[in-house]
Amino acid sequence: MSNTKRRIAVILSLAAIAVLLVHAAAGAGGAPVSPEDVLYFKRPASAAMSPSGEWIAYTVSVPRTPADEAGRAYGELYVVSAKTGEARPFVAGKVNAGSPQWSPDGSRIAFLMARGEKAKTQVWMIPFRGGEARQVTSSETSVSTFRWHPAGNRIAYVAAAPETKREKELDKKGYGFTFFEENLKDRNLYVLDVGEEGGAGEARILTEGCSVWSFEWSPDGATIAAGVSPKNLVDHQYMFQKIWLIDVATKERRQLSNNPGKLGNFAWSPDGSMIACNAAKELRDHAESQVFVVDAKTGETRNLTEPAFRGHVEWVGWKDRSTVIYRAGEGVYPTLSLVAARGGKRSVILDARTAGVIFDAPSFTKDFKGFAFTGSTPRSPGDVYFWDGKAKSPKRLTSLNPELAERDFGAQEVVRWKARDGLEIEGILIYPVGYKAGARHPLIVIVHGGPESHYSNGWVSSYGTPAQVFAGSGYAVLLPNYRASTGYGLEFALGGYMDAAGKEFDDIADGIDHLASAGLADPARVGLTGGSYGGYAAAWFASFYTKKVRAVCMFVGISDLTSKRLTTDIPYEELYVHSGKPIEEMWQQSLERSPIYWAHQSETAVLIVGGAADPRVHPGQSLEFYRLLTMNEHPAVRFVQYPGEGHGNARQPGRADVLHRQLDWFDWYVRDAKPLDGAMPPLDISDRYGIDLDKE
């Protein structure tokens, strides 16, 4: 062996030893992450930097405990010092506060809150230096979003038009029928004067005959840029939203942008001459992947995204009147970059790869010296961070879940493999707690939804995807960023266009084979779980790829592409960015890419769970798959529905059931490899919920 080869062998050996030491260290602590840790961890929902840069207002999502009434998580409002980390509760307890915004002079914090079980969400305001929170708006319907006027003496907000008196009377008498996608209520824009004590006078309506989803005041406060669609339908929000300029004094409006697809956030330049926006590059772009600048007078539009950008822009803002700042997902690490408004090469100013935290979109001061973020790490679900614009890493200001510091985590790292056509695919790999090299472990694959989404190398555990809980139970866990994921550029994202369940799911199968070939995964003990499009993958692997997996959990998943397209609330989104052709031209492909077409050959244990009121993926998708499997005398299929829940469970009872039920399912069929002989895990798992039941 040559000296060069000998040195390379030594380096590789040392690297392997280092990896093993990392894995050993990760499995040498206290108890593993538990289901209760995942169900009850706190998470920051938003963070807003004060104008002075001294304080950050943030809200915390606090899950309800078994002793609380069933409902969504509470939302508490806090303020933390950017210098000392001193945190002060402003609105805490059993409340629902969110979306904090500082007044331009920093003296007040406005936020959204619904006080009381049946109350509508309104804008509230609280003095920063002390005092009680006061309600600002008195909208008949819930306020969805709001913004301070630059002078601080007004707010604008969006709320749906209320029911008429006649409609209310008809409803009381039992005649409140649903006229499907007709008689819709516009999402209107209102302006309200505000004083120190709250709202002053009645709100003035600025829009009618359209729906406003988001908006921003111009720097001089005379004009509002609004994201507007013709109808109040989520499909219109996704596919038909354009930027309109509204004259606040006259209510006159004109369309500014002509973006050919999805529209993300947008922001005025400090001098009011331009608007930067995050939007799709073309109609078939399934995410808002680019950053554009639009001339506020002429509508002339310039794409500032570098050609063949291998990432997806997710948020835009302005550093100064000539420089745009944007956050992008680039593989498993987000970046924050600057680019000149006239175009040119970007400059990356913060990279999560080296910063050590997966940061969200920032809130920052006008002088660009104070940034507030929410962010996560592989061992922290979320905290509030401060960055001075210069340091390598933001400073963590909160510790919302200190108990997790005592937990024993599975080591988490980035993994890559070659797909069957040679393309490199990336994902996140979590090793079992107490991992030992040389042993094969059961594997759980967690597939993200969308597919316009991707995993970052931060916290990846939730009630539906309890990755670290799996690791604590002895599983290896793979979270693949398969073809059609965001974060890898438009060409990669288009890998699933007009090819549902094609290369995208082949990439997942190839990832399973890769880990089996590497000796980490036991190919005879593989499970797969996912929600929405991830639930589609679960059904596909339970049918077409049934030889690859012993068990799946299909959460709000797709089983029949034809009926899915005709029952979803986003039919145009599905047509333009996924299928690419009308259903009349795709009958056969839609049939053959549907799990129901292959269900008869299933040899996989199938757990089906989902909300009974899901508008996105109709509950009939679950029922079709269940019916076909049972009619084929499948020995291991179970279907559980959650009343009142939509596309994902918002309330704690359903979340607890999904988490515990899939753990039981995988332990039974994957870890313990019990046969599919008709005996299934216990149906009643109410002893896991932590609730008190009558013992009669």
Can you characterise this structure?
This protein is α+β, with helices and mostly antiparallel strands and 696 residues long. The chain is built from 15 helices and 37 strands. The protein has a domain of 275 residues: Alpha/Beta hydrolase fold, catalytic domain (Rossmann fold, 3-Layer(aba) Sandwich). The protein has an 8-stranded mixed β-sheet, sandwiched between helices. Strands 25, 26, 27, 28 and 29 form a 5-stranded antiparallel β-sheet that branches. It has a 4-stranded antiparallel β-sheet with strand order 1-2-3-4, with no helix packed on it. The N and C termini lie far apart (77 Å).
Keywords:
696 residues; alpha+beta; Rossmann fold; eight-stranded mixed β-sheet; five-stranded antiparallel β-sheet; disordered N terminus
List strands and helices in order, with pairings:
Blueprint: H1 3-26, H2 35-40, E1 43-49, E2 55-62, E3 74-81, E4 87-91, E5 97-102, E6 108-113, E7 122-127, E8 134-135, E9 143-148, E10 154-160, H3 165-172, E11 187-195, E12 198-205, E13 211-217, E14 223-229, H4 234-239, E15 242-247, E16 253-255, E17 263-268, E18 274-279, E19 290-295, E20 301-303, E21 312-320, E22 323-330, E23 333-340, E24 347-351, H5 352-355, E25 358-359, E26 363-364, E27 371-377, E28 380-387, E29 395-396, E30 412-418, E31 424-430, E32 441-447, H6 467-472, E33 476-481, H7 490-493, H8 503-517, E34 521-531, H9 533-543, E35 551-555, H10 561-567, H11 571-579, H12 587-592, H13 595-598, E36 605-611, H14 620-631, E37 637-642, H15 652-671
Parallel strand pairs: 32-33, 32-34, 34-35, 35-36, 36-37
Antiparallel strand pairs: 1-2, 2-3, 3-4, 5-6, 6-7, 7-8, 9-10, 10-11, 11-12, 13-14, 14-15, 15-16, 17-18, 18-19, 19-20, 21-22, 22-23, 23-24, 25-27, 26-27, 27-28, 28-29, 30-31, 31-33
